[in-house]
Amino acid sequence: MSIKRNLDVWAHLIKMQLYHDLAYPSQFICNIISSVLFTMAGPILGIVLYTNTLGFPGWSFHQFILLYGSFALWVGISSTVFIAAIWRIVRAIQRGDFDKYMIRPIKPHVFVLMHGWDYDGLGRVGMGLILIFYAALKLDLMVNITGLLTYLWVMVLGIMFTIGEIWLVLGLAFKFIKTDAVMHVFGVLFEFSKYPLTIYRGPVKFFLTFVFPVGLVAFYPASALLGFLSAKDLAIATLVSFGFFFMGYIAFWWGMRRHTSAGG
Fold this sequence. Notes:
By secondary structure, the protein is mainly α. The protein has one domain. Helices cover 72% and strands 0% of the residues. The protein has 13 helices and no strands. It has helices spanning 3-22, 25-39, 41-52, 61-81, 84-95, 99-102, 108-111, 122-138, 145-175, 180-190, 202-211, 219-226, 231-256. Helix 4 runs antiparallel to helix 8 (122-138), helix 4 (61-81) packs across helix 12 and helix 9 runs antiparallel to helix 12. It starts with a helix and ends in an 8-residue tail after the last helix.
């Protein structure tokens, strides 16, 4: 199937999701407002932290806001475009309904991602952009084209990491009936990405850099804008992101080949 046909199918699914969400407009608006308010918890925490302590070593308040804005932007993009696919596809696997995804004229690993659209994340996208621009103004950042392209590239790496995570969870869902614990663990690990990677030491930093690279979510993008990201760190981030992406891809196909149409 051509890329254009894939995009047409994705656009149709996005439109159908919009119709579904707008069937309850008050709930739709409340969900977006809730996501905005939830995102504001980060800056409030930063104000309290930097008012009463020295904050995070090596990071000023506005640098932290830049990092948190990058985190909010990643969460917003991921939750809008992809994350809901986990819950929807896992439920289909558990009900034994996944066969309908396998018979479509689209590769299953692509088709499952198309079912991740959720408009609730748009509030976080907006708040993330506001926080990033606010911090950049306060820091008088003069970002050159290289820094901007590096930032965008690292954001792409973060999205690839997210896709790899989704495929990994779905691959496990084919084999095991209950994957709630895995998703909960991943959710807890992503909480580490709200803070600078430099505050972690030893095995924890190694794990968050090479095993479950949450630094791709906010730390590396913010470091790119601030000029902190070295060529070595960028190369490591690229290799780790691609590695996790392909590991998730392999896990998905490994699990799908063992699918029995009965929820594992």
